[in-house]
Amino acid sequence: MPRRTPRNTLDRLRTPGRFPGFLKTASVCALIAGLLSPLTQVAAAADATASNDYCGGQCSDILPPGENGNATLAQILLNQAFGTQPEHAEDQLGPYANLAKGYPALTNATINTFFNDASFGVPSAQVASTVKPAGRSDVTIVRDKKTGVPHITGTTRYGTEFGAGYAAAQDRLWLMDVFRHVGRGRLTAFAGGAPSNQGLEQQFWRNAPYTEADLQAQIDNAVAANGARGQQALADADAYLAGINAYIDASDSGRYFPGEYVLTGHKDSITNAGTIDHFKITDMVALASVIGALFGSGGGGEVGNAVSLLAAQEKYGVEQGTQVWEAFRERNDPEAVLTVHDGESFPYAGKPANPQGEALPDAGSVTTQPLVYDATGTGGDQNASAAARAATASALGSARRGMSNALVVSGRSTASGHPIAVFGPQTGYFAPQLLMLQEIQGPGISARGASFAGLSMYVELGRGQDYAWSATTSGQDIIDSYAVELCQDDYHYLYHGACTAMDVVEQKNSWKPTTADGTAAGAYTMRVYRTKYGPVQYRATVGGKKVAYTTLRSSYMHEADSIIGFQMLNDPDYVKSPQTFQSAVQHINYTFNWFYADSTHTAYYNSGDNPVRASGVDAEFPVWAQAAYEWKDWVPATNSAAYTPPSAHPSSVDQDYYISWNNKQAKDYATASWGDGSVHRGNLLEDRVKKLVAAGGVTRASLTAAMAEAALVDLRAEDVLPDLLKVVTSSPVTDSTAAAAVTALQTWLTAGAKRTETTAGSKTYADADAIRILDAWWPLLVKAEFEPGLGADLYSAFTANLPVDEAPSAAHGPTGAHAGSSFQYGWWSYVDKDVRAVLGEPVQGGLARKYCGGGTLSGCRDVLIATLKTAAGKTAAQVYPGDTLCAAGNQWCADSIVQRTLGGIKHGNISWQNRPTFQQVVEFTSHR
């Protein structure tokens, strides 16, 4: 059967959601009739038997909305007009959504009501189709009836990878094309000039402004540095690309290619004129640069840190201001939840005793380096400017919303005696999904799981024959900011005493209206000035000297290096134990927390190329671009350096349990983003898993239920609200409005502080009033608690380092609103520590002073009651103002998850859950 078609653009990308009237209703039927033709590929049933599967039917996975991410033009038009879904486009969305109300009754026997069976192979009765791509005899793609997942089996390595590329294009061709253009800074020229598209290409190209030569050099260097494995990776990539391009040719000639190519003007639906460009190996590097920037890098906020430090010193003086800043930074908070909780220390990026080389800007001198030049038409209008500002803030901040969580329990605490893991990446919700499911079986490869579309030559997160692995974003600091002193003019700088010209890299884009994106014509040039210390991001003065601030990322110019680690993870002859697993992920240079489980052991390792900094350099702030402050053994031409050894990375084998939700990894190991304090969403997992382990007898069902419950809980309510109410009720509450609000909040707390429907499908929250009150109260109370003491300037600077709130209905990060992931960044730890101090309770690593109500209990109570009354008086329409999806005041809808359209197929929204997008539940019963 013809495989379907992908969608438009990422995160906030423009989707072909509003077609002109002539494409609607009755007219659509005539178009569809002309487009439906007997192009269906022959599907022959074939047996597929599992081989070397040691999971005993106890491996499960899920990836909404569905495996099918391609749709023909006819299918897109049917979906737009009538809501019809292509086969397997959303058959995993319902089970995924239903866990929110189904988890309390979950048993091991019912897990696959909400997940897929992730066993190897396809039973003969479940085979939906069998394809030998391009007529090859050395590879077969079998798809199952339930989900349409491709099971690729090859008799040669080349054939196996050819099949993987072919299957990827079957399921995600349009999406892959979108993202190679994002990585190359060419999205608007390809998919249209919508402001969101402009913002997206600007966000990524600012940090990875590669030329074609740069992309090729990264491949050459990765291959040369890795011997036989490097050569194998290159051969695998070539075969994978050949498979993609074979499908492009077949779908083009057969006219079942993704319909978005027609809607964006690349193909003609009548004559079939136009081309779909073949993929090349540098496209894979461009794709990798986008994924790495989204999920696998930490740091880059040094200039913002300097601005807030200067504001603190201006407010309090240098000594006290520095203390205040360090207290809010929480770079090594003793109350922070840890993944490695056995007390072992892994010092990294800590505060040096005697900082050297700091290049703090003169107050008020910092300006952002422009990216966009020569804008015309819609490339320079107000909407475009707003998108550019948002893109800049996202690109230059240290808060990388990689998300993802993991719960792993040792066999010592499980009912079966085998380890259990529930884990997965939280990559946002898209249609089609950024990830795709697959099984690959061939010489040297044996795995099932998820991979990013266009990079699926190996399974990146999933299971092998007798082990499973997953990752969460770790975010340790691998990006440093350097102050390069200018000479001659604004485009020359001093490098080791010589006045050196900056390299200029440009990308010129123009666009015009299409059916998919009606944005009027426009154009602009993106221009980046590159130095040996990385791209220029800011301009400022330091001590009166003009400088440019650059950012240097250890994975910059090394986007292809991680391929070796993923190759090893898929190799059953390499990964045979926790130690070999750890060895494999040591080859991944992006910043991730990696988790492992087999039938006997569990393991953890924190990956990333952590640069060895010069003695005395504080990773929190920019330093002078001078030899004395460069990374050890740094070679500018290749951006290579000395990196901390594996023994210095947080790691562990067979700890009693592991949890991770982007929290602090281990004692003394600093992450780049702010917010690793006493209250973190990792606590939602820690508290539940710790309780399960203490009781013993953990099962797949009970661990999954712990995750599912944490996914519905409001972190502010569970971990901060009790102390807030202690203050409020420290004296009788006589005001009727405040008293009613307190009662509602207490009732909600007693019920579990969950944001959940009254009944499945009701689209109305239980405890709706309490949720509305807290949503309105939190930003009011934070400002009233801290701004008077900090002053407006310092409060504003700190909120730039760490946003106050991240409720489910908030628009945040690259995934925007309706993104599911919530409570990653916020001021909950600050409020918790401050309120406990006011209550006289013990606080480790407290703030430098008390803020709430001037530090007195009565004053704090007055502040909280006043803001609570204001919050209680806000209507639902004021708290949830509505958007293009939701009417003002619709609380459930404001929180709900949307599969953000990246192409032509739309899906309905589902009730909020704060959980991984792709998720595995695994318990291996035996080992090789």
Structural class: alpha+beta
What strand order characterises the main sheet? 3-4-5-12-13-14-15-23-24-26
Using the alpha-carbon principal axes, give the shape.
globular
- Arithmetic mean pLDDT: 92
Tell me how many strands there are: 30
Strand content: 15-25%
Q: In DSSP terms, counting alpha (H) and pi (I) runs of 4 or more, how many helices?
A: 26
Low-confidence stretches: 1-49
Helix content: 25-40%
Major sheet size, sense and barrel closure: 10 strands, mixed
- What is the gyration radius calculated from CA atoms? 27 Å
Distance between the termini: 38 Å
Can you put this structure into words, describing what you see?
There is one protein chain. The protein is an alpha+beta fold. The strands form 5 sheets. A 10-stranded mixed beta sheet has the order 3-4-5-12-13-14-15-23-24-26, with helices on one face. Strands 7, 8, 16, 17, 18, 19, 20, 21, 22 and 25 form a 10-stranded mixed beta sheet that branches. A 6-stranded antiparallel beta sheet has the order 2-1-30-10-9-27, with helices on one face. It is built from 26 helices and 30 strands. Helices cover 34% and strands 17% of the residues. The radius of gyration is 27 Å and the shape is globular. The N terminus is likely disordered.
